[in-house]
Amino acid sequence: MTTDAVQEKIKDLEERLTKVEGKRDNLTMVLFSGDFDKAMAALIIANGALSMGKEVTIFVTFWGLDVIKKPTMTGAGKNFLEQMVTMMRPKGTANLPTSKMNFAGIGPKLFHYMMGKKNIVSLQTLLDTAVEFGIKIIACQMSMDVMGIKKEDLIDGIEFGGVAAFLGSSYNSGTSLFI
Q1: Could you point out which of 3, 5, 82, 165 has its C-alpha 20 to 30 Å from the C-alpha of 57?
Q2: pTM
């Protein structure tokens, strides 16, 4: 192989590497859990990545949808099973259980109290910041359909999509997390 051919191969590899590295600036996350502490971790990581100039996408599915529900969500216009799911699941960030030490709802109250004492921002503030500053939050349409959740039941500023939306974002990310 000639020197020119080798240099051409190196240049081609460098160009391809640059394209791949450009994709590595993004973060994609699946928020599957509706637990307070796991949602806190997801939004702290997401807001941290955003503050570092990364594009962030959070694909919210199944129990994670509890995090982005409006607290005023009702069972109106839903069938019996959808109404049951609505009644049994928490609505909004203030009503989420913790994954450990829930103690019939005392655990989250304890965490909220301790966070206030330490001047740690609330989960709702982290969520509002994420929406305000452009973190793309995509609610899983299939999970919404299964659980009887309507678009108007969720907070403003989010998008709706299926697994292809997650996969498309994940493909262009250097980091993908499942929480």
Answers
A1: 82
A2: 0.84
